[in-house]
Amino acid sequence: MSKISRRDLLQYIGAGGIGVVGGVLYGESVQQNVELLIPQVVPPEDYSPGVATWYNTVCNQCPAGCGISVRIREGKAKKIEGNPVHPVSQGRTCARGQAGLNALYNPDRIRTPLQNVGQRGSGNFEEISWDEALTTVGSRIGRLKIDNEASRVRLLCGRVRGHLDELFLQFMNLLGSDHYQQYDFTYPSALMAANKMSFGTDVLPYYDIRNAVFLLSFGADYLGTWISPVHHSLAYGHLRQGREGRRGKTIQIEPRMSLSGAAADEWIAARPGTEGLLALGIAHALVSEGHYHGSDRDEWSKALQAYSPSLVSAETDVSEDKILQLAREFGTSTASLAIAGGATAAGTNAVASIVAVNALNYLAGNLSQPGGIIFNPDPAFSATAGSRQAGFQGMLDLIGAMKAGDVDVLLVHDTNPVFALPDNVGFRQAMQNVPLIIALSSFRDETTEMADLILPTSTYLESWGDDVPDPGVGFPVASISQPVVATLYDTLPVGDIVLSLARQIGGELPIHMRWGTMEEFIKERWREEYDQRGSEGEEQEFEAFWQAALEAGVWGQPGAVAGDQPVPLSSSMIASIADPVSKFAGDESDYPFVLHPYLTATFLDGRGANLPWLQEMPDPMTSVVYGSWVELNPVTADELGIREGDVLDVESPAGSVRVPALIFPAIRPGVVAIPVGQGHAAYGRYARDRGVNPIHIVATLIDDQSGDLAWAATRVKLRATGERLQIIKTDGVTRTLGRQILGPENDHA
Amino acid sequence: MFDHGQPSYAEVNKDVLSVMLETGPKYWMLLGTTMSVAGICFFMPWIYQLFVGVGAAGMNRNAVWGSYLSNFIFWIGLSHSGTLLSAVLHITNSPWRKAIYRSAEAMTLFSLMTAAMFVMVHLGRVWFVHWSFPIPNQMGLWPNFRSPLMFDVMAITTYLTASSIFIYMGSVPDFAAVRDASTGLRRRLYTIFSFGWRGTAREWHTLGWAYTFFAIFVIPLAVSVHSIVSWDFALSIVPGLHHTIFAPYFVCGAIFSGTAGIVTVMYCLRKFLNFERYIGQVHLDSLGKLLITLSLIWSYINILELFSSWYGGTSFELEALQFKLTGFYAPLYWEMILFCAFVPLLILFKKIRWSWNKMLVISILINVGMLTERFIIVATSQPRKFLPDAFGFYFPSWIELSITVGAFAIFATLFLIFIKWVPAISIYEVKETLKPLRRDA
Amino acid sequence: MSTFVEKLRQYRKPGYYDKFDYHWTMTIDLDRCTGCEACMVACQAENNLPIVGEKRFAENREIKWIRIERYWEGEYPDVKMRFIPMLCQHCDDAPCETACPVFATYHNQDGLNTQIYNRCIGTRTCAVYCPYEVRYFNWFTYTWDEPLEQQLNPDVTVREKGVMEKCTFCIQRIRIAKDNAKDDDRRRVRDGEVVPACVQSCPTEALVFGNSNDPEAKVSKMMKNPRGYKVLEELNTTPSIVYLTKVHS
Predict the structure, then answer these.
(1) Domain with CATH 2.40.40.20 in chain A
(2) Which residue of C has its CA nearest to B385?
(3) Residue (of B248, B170, B226, C81) closest to A260 by Cα position
(4) Tell me: the pLDDT tens digits for A129-175?
(5) pLDDT tens per residue, range C177-216
(6) CB crowding A434-453: b at 16 or more within 10 Å, else e
(7) What stretch(es) of chain A map to CATH 3.40.228.10?
(8) Is B216 on the interface with C (CB under 8 A)?
(9) What angle do CA A653, A654, A655 make, to 5 degrees?
(10) Residue of C129, C138, C236 to mutate for B, most B C-beta atoms under 10 A
(11) Among candidates B106, B170, B119, which has minimal Cα distance to B411?
């Protein structure tokens, strides 16, 4: 190597040194932000990083009122589980309950009060402050009150129970308006009306599936959507394999196999609308075959004489042998239970059908017995919530009032009638006549989009409240709903909004409704209840009781004497039996198929469609995601030359929808089924512009006795449009192909 | 051996070396084209896939392996050409291999490299591919030697190494020829490449011995490599893949497709490098006979496979069989049978066997059929495993088709570079076939 | 020679363990399962499963560690629908474990078939080899629309593209339970302390989970049920999940 001169050496050292210094400086300048595990120097009070806390509250994803436990890490909600001590959920959840976290952290939540600046329904909203919003609303309502026209204020909400319901009622009463109504598509109004007629009870009874040995379900999807699916699933599990050596049997009678139908030992597809008749046929057989030993046998015989199995068989398309077999099993089982729901409770003969099913229970002698119908005591509080259910007639009244200009201010909370009512009742159009519509909601669903002012509500995971589960569990029970996370956005719990409005409106409202927040209100009411019930020998202080109740999330008195169980008179039961004749909208020759819309385990009545986990959850029976479909029997599809994926025009006398066809083996040939839940025009990125809403094309026939919407009484015709749409399913081939997958001996291929 | 009369020693040198020493614009255009196609069709989609994820391809939950792996196997199959020709035929002293074995060995090497590219494209996290090698690491972890993919890694690296040494070693005297015929930089380079070869008797003896040793060494390697690659499939329990016949099936198929590849390359060499004199009827005839033999063996093994699936009678195998023969990809399956079992039968006819054009067509069809065969194996077995509810469907995406095309461009690029750096015909071996000249000629 | 044979035999055992410390097993009672899919959403919540979106579902690229398989039997009107939850069976002779070239999946001392996300290089051989098709590949790096990512479970890695994932029997919950047991006087994990998300949410109590090395555990008793069988048992994968057939009445 040649010698390096001193100059070269110095040059090299200089260059090297500059390079090193430059590199170090560069490195320093691009240093990443130091990542701290604890983002604050002073750790927050309400959590320790790395340690999970659990808060018990109440799920609001369906009206059952299951208690849930929410796991919180670093102030964020991570996981929802069932509350182990809650008598309804007993530590379990359903898929919808799990997806509650999607509601809390939904990207499309309304984060601030909004004011409509465009045409009504255009979705053109601008942010305003709470002060502005409350002032506008308060002054408007206040003026109406001063002018004694507060009856022009109407409050419409979803299924609200507990003290929030009382708060709403008090608010409206103090205003001087008796127009406080609730509308929930899933409310079992026919069942309530029928129970009133059969048993004289105003409260939804407890159907003790758990201890039943023979369960006969007329259309009630008790495992998926009917009333309290988690509790029924628990009961079902016990019915099957919870008793040593004693496996319960379930039968499902419905034109399209639901989840409960799939779980049943037998699925019977009676002619649509004739389930009530079938029940009477079974009742007849019960009496005539000697399975009923009551003293009023003869009266029953006479009442049921028109419903002999042979006659009923012809009408219902269920064989006489089957009817007699069902009667025999129902009558001889040690604990038989008959329930009704679904399409059976949604025809023009809904009440009559359910009354017939109630008669079965009477004849089985299961009233107030384990495994039968246990009548619930009056709820711990809010005894008359059920009477606020508007039902279809109530909604028609509201629409009439709006059209007539009798409504000045409409407050809407947690209900979506623009989605959940048939198109041709014109709810959306009637809303145009209301000068001020205020939506108290967390999401911009179709009804909220029609509002002039949106006062955003906190979700149930951010709000105080309480609830009495409906149906009760046979003994007094009350749940507490508490916030599990700090409010995410500039929203208020709906109770707090009402209290703020009360203060804005002034007058005697804030005097009577003196609580600052919902928490205060709830706690005070619970204190009153606690004092009322007396200490019962316990020396507990209310504070200790309250803490215990908050920790548990629920209070109950298992084993408490439920009070007198109503003992229905056989005469009144017999008198309530009416001929369950069903009518359908549309002539059979023009509209050859009966439309069977059904509530889905994924979205219920559409309320879950904005939650991505639910959109991604394959439909339990068909495995379809992210879309709608119409189910056809394979034979029907063959006859019409329809393949899966062909887009069909499903037209009823009330409207039409376009939806791809799906071949479904377990549906009666003359029936087509469309799931309820999709078809939103708004409601966030996951829900909007996806699928179709069959409720919109339901004809407005009503139940003969209760006036409720008979949404299973529409006939439709099908027309192939020639288009095709991919139905996104996760299923491959749904036959076992002779492989031993379901057990060592697989008899069916 | 020589169709147009025997060349002299000097002519052999001149003909073969002129390819290397003289480069016209046509070559640069061709090289440019293949490199562009490789870049656009292979590397750009691959880079896109690296950013976006393997989901850019068409694989899904039901068929996680797709055309990348079937292409990989196809290229490994093509690589068996050189080994067979070079090594096997060297042991058996076939004279007609001498003109073509160098290019065949080059084909082997470049097919292996292309196949390795496909492994890279196939991986989900290719930046960690080094974890599959047993190199020292801070985690103190060995790779899993029970995995057939590990066998792959071992076998292919060994095969790649051995083939590189094999071809290099055999080219040393030819590098010396290049050195002697060139000047300047090239001369200096080839002096290094040829290790100072002087052509002494001792050197020839050592070369011959070493070459034969490697030939014997490389033959079991070749058989094992493709058997091991077949065990990627056969060691699974997937119906349609879990057959013991897979190793012989793949080895036979590999040699078959490799030999067909040789025919194609020979055609190109003759046409573009004017090697008609050196690669003649004898070569074509022999290759043709080899092809027909292999095709018959291949057909036999195919029938065995179908038979064993059917005979076993399990629902799984029958479903896989039925889907293969009559499902969505049935046209591809029958096309494969046509091209690989029936079209080669034409070679029985001398008229066809002695026509370069017709043999070119047949060899291309055979390779198309073999490529289809790999694809069929991957695409029809995976979506039809055991649980019917999990049955699915796989269709390649445009990225996969593009990368398939791009791979051929990569191979062509490598080969084009090869012919400029290594004599495409083994000069000294061809000279061995020449009858010695009379002293007075 | 005998030590060599010993070593060979040990080498061929799954995970090289002679016996398992805990042997986590699950029983699934098909007579209770109603196909309601609460387990699917619970698993999604617990294990940070991505929201893949409609397009990916259409391409058959969903990621659902536990899924419900549906099988129709018969024809209308005597048609039945049978549900069977399918999740990683944690086979003791897992075909997937031998397949992975980098040991990203192996059998641990608790009988679990574990997946090491940061070791996976994405060859996807394990998914080909799995007869139950319960392995899911991250074809892309999935993201959550803000603020849905606030819900992500901090105990579970969020996977990037190129990595294979599958049911882990909620190994994070097993880990926490073992840690708690260790803190609590070095005792063993008791039956019922470890509950995977799916088992916890199942409304019909169809899923039972526990340590089958403990003869008193509920799962050990459930396993002995004469209705018990294993799916695809003839493949000799020795799954750790015992299904109880639905009773036909």
Answers:
(1) 593-724
(2) C131
(3) C81
(4) 999 999 999 999 999 999 988 899 999 999 898 899 999 999 999 99
(5) 999 999 988 789 999 999 999 999 999 999 999 999 999 9
(6) bebbbbbbbbbbbbbbbbbb
(7) 205-374
(8) no
(9) 100
(10) C129
(11) B106
Q: Do A92 and C58 touch (CB under 8 A)?
A: no
pLDDT at A263 over 90: yes
Percent over 70 (pLDDT), chain C: 96
Whether the CB of B62 is below 8 Å from some CB of chain C: the reply is yes
The phi and psi torsions of A630 (rounded to 5 degrees) equal -120, 130
**3-class DSSP state for residue A353?**
helix
Count Cβ atoms within 10 A of the Cβ of residue A160 and give its class: 0-12 exposed, 13-18 middle, 19 or more buried: buried
Cβ–Cβ of C60/B392 closer than 8 Å?
A: yes
* Distance of alpha carbon A400 from alpha carbon A406, whole angstroms: 9
Measured between alpha carbons, how far is C162 from B419 in angstroms, rounded to an integer?
A: 38
Selecting from B55, B144, B386 the residue whose C-beta is nearest the C-beta of C131 gives B386
Nearest Cα to Cα of residue A542 among A554, A551, A552, A531: A531
Q: Please tell me the CATH code under which domain A593-724 is placed.
A: 2.40.40.20
Q: Where are the alpha helices (DSSP H) in B4-147?
A: 9-21, 25-37, 44-52, 67-78, 80-82, 89-91, 101-122
Report the CATH fold assignment for A205-374.
Dimethylsulfoxide Reductase; domain 2 (3.40.228)
Contacts of A638 (CB under 8 A, 6+ apart): none
Q: What is the pLDDT of residues A705-733, one digit of tens each?
A: 888 999 999 999 999 999 999 999 999 99
| pLDDT digits 0-9 by tens, B205-244 | 999 999 999 889 888 888 899 999 999 999 999 998 999 9
What is the pLDDT, as a whole number, of residue A537? 40
CA dist A22 → A17, A19, A381 (Å): 8, 5, 75
**Which CATH architecture best describes the domain A114-185+382-457+491-538?**
3-Layer(aba) Sandwich (3.40)
Q: What residues does A690 pair with on adjacent strands?
A: A680
| Residues A608/A99, Cβ–Cβ less than 8 Å | yes
B79, B107 Cβ separation under 8 angstroms: yes
Residue B140 pLDDT:
87
Inter-chain residue contact B390 with A732, CB threshold 8 Å: yes
Contact across the interface for C46 and A74, Cβ inside 8 Å: no
- Residue A277's identity, in one-letter code, is L
Residues A459, A481 contacting (CB under 8 angstroms): no
CATH 3.40.50.740 in chain A, residue ranges: 114-185+382-457+491-538
> What is the per-residue pLDDT for C4?
84
- Is cis: bond before A255, omega within 30 of 0? no
Q: How many CB atoms lie within 10 A of CB A714?
A: 26
Tokens of C25: 């097993």
Domain ranges of chain B: 9-124+147-433
Q: Report, as an integer, the average pLDDT of B85-112.
A: 87
Q: Residue B236's closest chain C neighbor by CA?
A: C129
The string of DSSP letters for B300-363 reads HHHHHHHHHHHHH--HHHHHHHHHHHHSTTHHHHHHHHIIIIIGGGGGGSHHHHT-HHHHHHHH
The whole-number pLDDT of residue C11 equals 66
Question: Chains with 3 or more CB pairs closer than 8 angstroms to C?
Answer: A, B
- Domains detected in chain C: 15-244 (3.30.70.20)
Q: pLDDT at position A747, please?
A: 42
Q: Judging by DSSP bridges, how do beta strands A153-157 and A180-182 pair with one another?
A: parallel
How far is the C-alpha of A550 from the C-alpha of A53, rounded, in Å? 14
Taking CA–CA distances from B383, the nearest residue in chain A reads A732
Q: Kindly provide the ipTM of the predicted complex, given to two decimals.
A: 0.94
